[in-house]
Amino acid sequence: MAKLDLSVPDLTLPDGNKIPMIGFGLGTAWFKKPGAKDEACIQATQTAIKVGYTHLDGAEIYNTEEELGDAIRASKVPREKLFVTTKLNDSSDSINDIPGALDRSLKKMGLDYVDLYLIHSPFFAKGDKQRLQAAWAEMEQLAAAGKAKSIGVSNFLKEHLDAILETCKVRPAINQIELHPYLQHGDLLAYHRSKDIKVSAYGPQTPVIRAKGGPLDGYLDSLAKKYAVNPGEILLRWCLDQNVAVITTSSKEQRMSDMLRVFTFSLTPKEVEEISDIGKQHHFRAFWNHIFDANDKS
Ligand SMILES: NC(=O)c1ccc[n+]([C@@H]2O[C@H](COP(=O)([O-])OP(=O)(O)OC[C@H]3O[C@@H](n4cnc5c(N)ncnc54)[C@H](OP(=O)(O)O)[C@@H]3O)[C@@H](O)[C@H]2O)c1
């Protein structure tokens, strides 16, 4: 599809800041060991910015924060027009010095603030809610210092959020979780709505990429035909139509541009429900499998 001059809608966070509804990730396919810079990652990120992505999703663990910063500078887009996320690594040296970890990330990116800083996962705390609460209190200080405009979490389940909500001064603005029809986490979305915590979805296209051959294939194909898009874009829309922002990525300009078509149509409520119902017939978790049992749908 030709380049579209589309503006990406925002999701308003509980703190009043706005996050673009689609983000370009510098993890998964771009994840690397520390070492030489990945020029392809810099180039792809620059291309993503050029075609219209303003929300960039990084993390300390991806080892691509330098690439993220380089791509921003090469793009010549003013910093304030971009929404940059990074995430606190689970390693003890990061968890035991959260301000130091953010400073290290900012230095790698060559930035003086992030729009969103996330605790990458709750699993470092091994179920100890006081450790989660202490980490969150440090996140609040980073927000107060202006180094992170918004603060949030990733991979948190209800019990982890409950722990933070018990003692927080500022609630997590957003929780970034693996979300697609084959991993709906029971009533976790409804729980977020009840607590006014927004959700963003990573791995949103999993049913057509990593779990192809499941019960949704035929229905996704028929909706893709109806809306003249790709099945993966129907999955992005399934998130967006539930007020969930999506984090995706691609190495291909064509796909980056195609995915922005999701802002030209909506699924009907019945189609969203039908995808959810069919999706529940199958379970597939693509990430953090070392933490969860094979049949754990939480
Ligand atoms: N917080 C966390 O724990 C966590 C975990 C995982 C990911 N994330 C974030 O989420 C971002 C996106 O995650 P994701 O990669 O899982 O997103 P995704 O949207 O599910 O998948 C995108 C990937 O699938 C490939 N792809 C897209 N359509 C395809 C198709 N039709 N056939 C085959 N391959 C296709 C793309 O490759 P090409 O287009 O290059 O071929 C790209 O590598 C990551 O970069 C990271 O920032 C966060």
From TrEMBL:
Enzyme Commission designation: 1.1.1.307
Which PROSITE patterns does UniProt cross-reference here?
ALDOKETO_REDUCTASE_2
Q: Which residues bind substrate?
A: H120
The protein's role, per its UniProt record: Catalyzes the initial reaction in the xylose utilization pathway by reducing D-xylose into xylitol. Xylose is a major component of hemicelluloses such as xylan. Most fungi utilize D-xylose via three enzymatic reactions, xylose reductase (XR), xylitol dehydrogenase (XDH), and xylulokinase, to form xylulose 5-phosphate, which enters pentose phosphate pathway.
Q: Main EC class of this protein?
A: oxidoreductase
Q: Superkingdom, according to UniProt?
A: Eukaryota
Task: Indicate what this protein is called per its UniProt record.
Answer: D-xylose reductase [NAD(P)H]
Q: What are the protein's UniProt keywords?
A: NADP, Oxidoreductase
Swiss-Prot/TrEMBL catalytic activity: xylitol + NAD(+) = D-xylose + NADH + H(+); xylitol + NADP(+) = D-xylose + NADPH + H(+)
